[in-house]
Design goal:
about 350 residues, 11 strands, five-stranded mixed sheet, binds zinc ion, Nucleotidyltransferase, domain 5, about 15% strand, 2 domains, six-stranded mixed sheet, globular, binds 5'-O-[(R)-(carboxyoxy)(hydroxy)phosphoryl]adenosine, alpha/beta
Length: about 350
């Protein structure tokens, strides 16, 4: 089954064709980062306009590439992200996908962006042997989506069933990277710059105990923002951001590399600590990691160590599938057709969509 996936929830205009949920036949991503850079963050109206300008060419490129690879095999469905994300950006992809599905006479499938990130470790490229197992055979997995908008630990009792067990109470991990970079004048987005700078610093200073001890973002037990979730599965990055600001006010930013490495380490250790607690409590068969921040080299290596200690296999997205892309949307749609056909045609953009069970 060949599915076209369209993704426009934030600042990437993306489309891809995936076979049977996992094998990527084509994958085209137009990133708008240069357009938003000078504003220090994503401007929804600019994102929306750029999606409108680019979507036709991006989808056409994904379809042309797929047609070449498959000898013109027809599409079986069109899938599209309907939330969460920026409303004016989501609407562009959703409307385009509705029109395309109607004109091709194939079903439309509406996809949750968070679920799609959790599918990325299961994608592989045509001709390649997949590193991850068939997801529908997993009995229980623990997922972590770490991106610019989310930091969510998700229990998956089986594939397609989701329950959020932990999350950030304020900023997402990617947001924490981006805000620090802004504060230190490192540009947007912050994650990749900080990753590089911290890697160079850590390579030259292997003794991590000499880093600045920034707070590790553990919320207090019983605070109302937990909304019933366990504090040891949740993070809070607002205190870390304040600690960075105070430190720079007090000490200056001359030791920028050391500050950045220390700040990154606080985020990484926060993610690692909660993951360890959740793995221990849920004892899943696999740990599944996706989202832009999962591109971070230190996140990848430390979470690798955490999983090895817990004896749980770690499945991470390939770097090209960490950020937003259409392949994760097309791939998931093979497994998750709970909003399809007429129901999908009637769906509206859902900017604050949460992750929910297939059974609901
Ligand atoms: O998944 P994504 O492309 O979009 C959202 O759905 O949010 O994630 C973007 C986020 C940004 O905050 C960016 O700074 C962060 O991912 N990011 C990184 C790295 N690459 C991107 N954070 C840490 N280290 C990286 N190497
Ligand atoms: Zn995303």
């Amino acid at each position: 089954m060949l599915i076209l996936g369209i993704e426009t929830s934030c600042d990437e205009t993306a489309a891809a064709v995936v076979r049977d949920g996992r094998e990527t036949i084509s994958n085209v991503v137009f990133t708008q980062i240069p357009l938003h850079k000078r504003y220090g963050g994503v401007v929804p109206e600019i994102a929306s306009r750029a999606h409108i300008e680019k979507i036709d060419a991006v989808v056409r490129a994904a379809l042309d590439e797929a047609a070449e690879a498959t000898g013109g095999a027809p599409l079986d469905a069109v899938a599209v992200t309907y939330g969460p994300g920026l409303a004016p950006a989501l609407i562009v992809g959703l409307n385009f996908a509705k029109g395309l599905a109607a004109s091709l006479g194939v079903p439309l499938v509406a996809i949750n962006h968070l679920e799609a990130h959790l599918h990325t470790p299961f994608l592989f490229d045509a001709g390649e042997t997949p590193a991850a197992p068939e997801p529908s055979r997993l009995r229980r997995a623990l997922g972590l989506v770490v991106s610019g908008g989310h930091t969510n630990w998700i229990d998956m009792p089986s594939y397609g069933r989701y329950r959020t067990i932990g999350q950030t109470l304020d900023d997402a991990a990617g947001e924490a990277f981006d805000k620090a970079a802004k504060m230190l004048g490192l540009g947007y987005p912050g994650g990749p710059v900080i990753d590089k700078m911290a890697a160079a610093y850590n390579a030259a200073h292997p003794d991590l105990s000499a880093l600045i001890p920034f707070p590790k973002g553990r919320p207090r037990e019983g605070v109302s923002a937990l909304a019933g979730l366990r504090a040891d599965f949740c993070v809070s990055f607002s205190g870390l951001k304040t600690a960075l600001m105070r430190y720079v006010e007090r000490e200056g930013a001359e030791e920028r590399e050391r500050i950045v490495a220390s700040y990154q380490e606080a985020i990484v250790q926060a993610l690692a600590g909660r993951t360890e607690a959740a793995l221990c409590a849920y004892r899943p068969e696999a740990f599944v990691l996706g989202g832009g921040v999962s591109l971070n080299s230190r996140v990848r290596s430390v979470l690798g160590e955490v999983c090895a200690r817990a004896g749980v296999p770690l499945y991470m997205a390939k770097p090209k599938y960490c950020g937003d892309n259409g392949a994760m949307v097309a791939g998931l749609a093979f497994y998750r057709r709970n909003i399809a056909g007429d129901a999908a045609m009637a769906v509206d953009a859902a900017p604050s969509l949460e992750i929910a069970d297939a059974e609901q």
